[in-house]
Structure formats: C-alpha cells, structure tokens
Amino acid sequence: YIITNSLKEYEYDGVVSCDFETTELKDLSINKIISASVCIKSGNKYVSFFFPLYEQERHVFEVFIEFLLSQKKVIFHNYKFDCIAVREILKHLYPENWQKIYEEFSTKIEDTLLSFYVLNQYNSASIGSLDSLSFYTPFGNVKYKLSSKLGIRDEDGKGIVKQYRTNFNLFKEYNCFDTIITYSLFEKIQK
To answer: Which of 2, 45, 49, 156 is deepest in the core (most CB within 10 A)?
Structure first.
C-alpha cells in the first residue's frame, strides 16, 4: 500500500473508498469534521490520500467534495455515519440544492458493513468495526494496532483533535488505513 500526497500520478477506474474522522458521531456539524481520506486501486496497489479538513477554508472542502462527486463509485464502511459528514459539507457549500446533489451522489454508494452483514448473515456476531473486519483482509491487525496507539475516542472529541494536532502522521496513517481496509473488504465482497 501507499499513502501519498497526490493521486494525480496514479491511474484508476473511478472507484474510491472514503472515510471521515470527526469529533463525535451524533451531533455532527461542519466544524466537527477533522479529516477525510480516500483510497484508489492502481494496478495491484492500494493508494490512499489524506484530506485535512479541520478548521480549513471553504475551498478545501470544495476540492474534496468535487473529487468525491466526480467518482464512478464511492465505498464506505458503515455509511450511516459518513453520510452525515457528506450532507453537512453539501449543506455548507450548496445550501440551495444540496439535497439534489446528495440524492445523485447516493446512487454511487457501496457500504461494506451492510454488504458484509448480508453475505454473512448467519455469522453476524463477527460483523462490526473496521478493527474487527480488518482480519478478513491482507492487512490483519494493522488497524487495531493503529487504533491502540492513538487512543482517540472520548466523549467530547478533544482527544481526536489533540491527536490530529500533536501526532499528525500517525493520525493520517490511521485515517488512510480505514480506506485501504474498506477497499480491500469491498474487493473481498465482490468475489
């Protein structure tokens, strides 16, 4: 796998996986989105790119969302949380027609959690977080190790912001690995 600063040099088929990191999961406004990452498959390599979004200017959100909207397919893991971030960005950028844009975007979505649950309906006890599902991918427990190193979840979201500011490279790797594992799961589901 590769974590890169640009996707321009890589060829891919218009399919990306995406993940957001936020300060919380319930009350999500635009200022609580910390970052997003995307992953493409170029040849036999997973290539992930990190978008820092916390306290960024409007144009940074525009570049990110325009990239996402231009894709053929966008894969999420447990989209019910990520869709809140997508909607908040669209509301912020396009207040007049965000709903129409969101409806069009929704036709491109794949959700690995939902797909994995459907395919493994008799073994649903093992379904859940990317930490647990990463064992179904070639990456084993890498995600779990990154989660343990960061220890970022807390009730007020301050832990995730602190890690973003003080341990940026590890945070970037953590966010990017979510998309790498999600893409890998998607491939497994497609077989």
So the answer is: 49
Does an H or E element contain 109, and which?
strand 109-111
- The predicted pLDDT at position 189 comes to 83
Reported as a single tens digit per residue, the pLDDT across 92-106 is 999 999 999 999 999
Full-model pTM: 0.83
Q: How many residues does the chain have?
A: 191
Amino acid at 121: Q
- Predicted local distance difference test score (pLDDT) of residue 169: 85
Q: Does the pLDDT of residue 22 top 90, yes or no? A: no
Can you tell me whether residue 170 is helix, strand or coil?
helix
Contacts 24+ apart (CB under 8 A), 60-69: 61/30, 61/89, 61/92, 61/93, 62/93, 64/36, 64/89, 65/89, 65/90, 65/93, 67/38, 68/16, 68/18, 68/38, 68/105, 69/101, 69/104, 69/105
Residue 25's pLDDT band (boundaries 50, 70, 90)?
Answer: low
188 closest CA partner among 128, 116, 100: 116
Q: Are strands 45-52 and 33-42 parallel, antiparallel or unpaired?
A: antiparallel
Of 70, 8, 91, 74, which is closest to residue 37 (Cα–Cα)? 74
Tokens, residue 11: 């060829």
Phi/psi zone of residue 151: left (φ > 0), alpha (ψ -120 to 50 degrees), beta?
left
